[in-house]
Design brief:
12 strands; 638 residues; elongated; three-stranded mixed beta sheet; alpha/beta
């Protein structure tokens, strides 16, 4: 089922993954994430780099350069060189101004320009991309200046002009007259802005911007109408600079936030006695002998004097720890195993099935006994595809017979022939032969994954016809296969629990039985579709098969759509496809439509599956499209 798109833009999965890898490389943090947002910024608490939609609908070279510079500014600049405590203090002061939006956006511009110079200094290869970024922004703000002047949006026009003054290479550049009060204060503001490129840290810029904002607070009649840059208002009071390892180990603050007075040397309360401790036996080993979680008390200025000297008893304790044996008390390991299994069932497979499927878990269903209507419908489908199935079977049998009777002489290796005259007459003699061998079987296995989302309601009947062709043709040449429908239950899905149903109507065991097939008619359109999660499950099932050639065919009618899966669904599905192909499984998509396939849909499917996708504009033509595909795949497996 597709969600309504208010912003009809598809994400280029290759570019998105390139940006994500770039951010991880620059920050040296595997946990860092990249997401699209209205404006670009860095969230240090969530560990996310946001790139701007400003670069959408631009020429490819401008869009790519712009998105990369967003990553550069956040991964090199904001991540390493922005003082977030200072940002928090600035936001508190700016919130009291009548032109707070102007002040925050001006600080963001100045900070970006400072970070840009640091990025170019640390990574000279970024200069070309930043030069293109500046050209695009200057053209944009020049146009915005003219528009805001015509509309008499004076504060926005003033901001546009300041950006042009900050980024110009011409020291004599001027901006148009906006109003008498603004024109009178412009020389002061312009003089203050010269400090931007001299700033050494964030606090230099916050001080300068506040001085400008205090003056403009009395000059500008109203705050800015538009947002050109975004300074996120996060809880920067929680941010601590230069955390030590001991700081990181503390998980919670003290219940009271008081402090003892300064303690003079010699006044410390020192106890020489040993402190008795008590602990329970546990089944899990720990790396430390003893651990305290301090929640009560008061903070002092006492500092440790380094690690204590080792004692003879330490080694004895180490030996005792190494010689520990299993407890004779109650065994609770089975309860831990139960918790582990429950976590795996309800989203515990984050690493195996992707971070976007953390809370998804599978629900496997088996088909019911086919009713008379299922048998009747399947027999009608069999009659419709009979010519294709018969032609395909004859082709396979002829190919196998040809391989059986193919001459096995005049080879470069094998058994030596008695006719050795060609050793002297031919430049490249073929003197070997092999005995005739019986024809080989088709060493392949197929998995057909069928999208059972709600949007398939007008295509499911034709899809069943195409799957019937696959089932009958593969059965006739003794190739094992399975047919699985998948969907996610929208009504049961929550933020922490997302059941995904897999209905196996044909399994590997029953696929070669004569009476199998009517179960296919039980596939019906259901709810949402989480394609990446389903593909990963089918990949694991195929990897357990012993056949050499493994094929996974995905029948779908569009992009994935499920709970918390809208933005990253295409990326996650593409990663699942790449992972399957790396493991030797050929993944092919059969895209079903009931009319013209627009360029956006084609781009989406190409982003996910690459060139291994078959577009079917009219599902009535599905058997005609699937026949050559199946023939080609089977020939490859012989």
């Amino acid at each position: 089922m597709r969600f309504i798109k208010f912003n009809d833009k598809n994400i280029d999965s290759f570019l998105f993954m390139e940006l994500a890898d770039l951010a991880k490389t620059l920050t040296k943090q595997d946990e860092i994430q990249v997401e699209y947002a209205f404006k670009s910024y860095y969230d240090p608490f969530a560990g996310k780099v946001f790139v701007s939609h400003f670069w959408d609908n631009r020429p490819a070279h401008e869009m790519i350069a712009g998105l990369k510079t967003d990553v550069f500014l956040r991964s090199i600049g904001s991540y390493r060189h922005t003082h977030f405590k200072e940002i928090g203090s600035f936001l508190k002061q700016a919130g009291k101004l009548s032109v707070s939006s102007f002040a925050k956006q001006l600080l963001m511009v100045c900070e970006d320009l400072r970070l840009e110079e640091l990025c170019k200094r640390e990574r000279p290869g970024t200069k070309k991309a930043f030069a293109l970024r500046r050209d695009v922004y200057r053209k944009y703000f020049h146009d915005q200046l003219n528009v805001n002047l015509v509309k008499s949006v004076q504060t926005d026009a003033f901001f546009n002009g300041l950006y042009l003054l900050l980024t110009t290479d011409n020291p004599f550049e001027e901006i148009p007259s906006i109003s008498d009060p603004i024109d009178r204060v412009l020389p002061y503001v312009r003089n203050q802005l010269t400090k931007v490129y001299e700033a050494k840290a964030t606090q230099d810029l916050t001080k300068m911007v506040m001085e400008i904002a205090d003056v403009l607070d009395e000059v500008l009649e109203r705050d800015m109408l538009n947002m050109y840059f975004h300074l996120p208002e996060l809880d920067y009071d929680e941010w601590e600079e230069g955390l030590t390892f001991d700081d990181l180990k503390r998980q919670a603050k003290l219940e009271n936030d008081d402090s003892l007075g300064k303690i003079q040397k010699g006044d410390e309360d020192i106890h020489e006695n040993d402190m008795p401790t008590h602990h329970r036996e546990t089944s899990r080993a720990t790396k430390s002998f003893l651990q305290f979680d301090i929640e009560h008390g008061s903070k002092t200025d006492l500092m440790g004097e380094g690690g204590r000297e080792g004692e003879d008893g330490d080694q004895a304790l180490g030996m005792v720890q190494g010689a520990a044996r299993k407890s004779k008390q109650n065994d609770y390991s089975h309860m831990e195993a139960m918790e582990s299994n429950r976590d795996e069932e309800q989203g515990g497979g984050e690493s195996e099935f992707g971070k976007d499927n953390k809370y998804a878990y599978p629900v496997f269903q088996t088909p019911d006994v086919p009713g008379p209507e299922h048998v009747r419908g399947y027999e009608e489908n069999k009659k419709a595809i009979a010519p294709y199935q018969k032609k395909l079977k004859q082709m396979i049998e002829k190919t196998l017979e040809h391989k059986k009777t193919l001459p096995r002489t005049d080879l470069h290796f094998g058994r030596l022939n008695k006719k050795l005259l060609r050793l002297f007459t031919d430049e490249n003699p073929r003197l070997f032969f092999k005995k005739h061998q019986p024809s080989i079987e088709i060493d392949a296995v197929f998995s057909l994954l069928v999208d059972c989302s709600g949007s398939m309601f007008d295509k499911m009947d034709e899809t069943k016809l195409g799957i019937t062709l696959f089932h009958e043709a593969l059965s006739s040449v003794r190739v094992p296969h399975e047919v699985v429908g998948f969907w996610e239950d929208t009504n049961e899905a929550t933020e922490t629990k997302q059941p995904n149903y897999f209905k196996t109507v044909i399994d590997f065991t029953s696929s070669l039985k004569r009476k199998s097939g009517p179960e296919i008619m039980q596939l019906e359109p259901e709810e949402d579709n989480r394609d990446g999660y389903a593909i990963r499950h089918m990949t694991n099932r195929l990897l357990k098969r012993s056949e050499t050639q493994k094929f996974l065919l995905v029948f779908s009618d569009g992009e994935p759509a499920a709970m918390d899966y809208e933005q990253n669904g295409i990326i996650d599905t593409h990663e699942a496809v790449l992972d399957a192909r790396k493991k030797g499984i050929e993944v092919i998509n059969v895209f079903l439509s009931n009319g013209y396939i627009d360029e956006g849909q084609q781009k989406t499917i190409q982003n996910i599956y690459g060139k291994y996708s078959i577009l079917v504009p009219n599902v009535d033509e599905l058997p005609d499209v699937l026949f050559p595909l199946l023939r080609k795949l089977l020939q490859k497996s012989i």
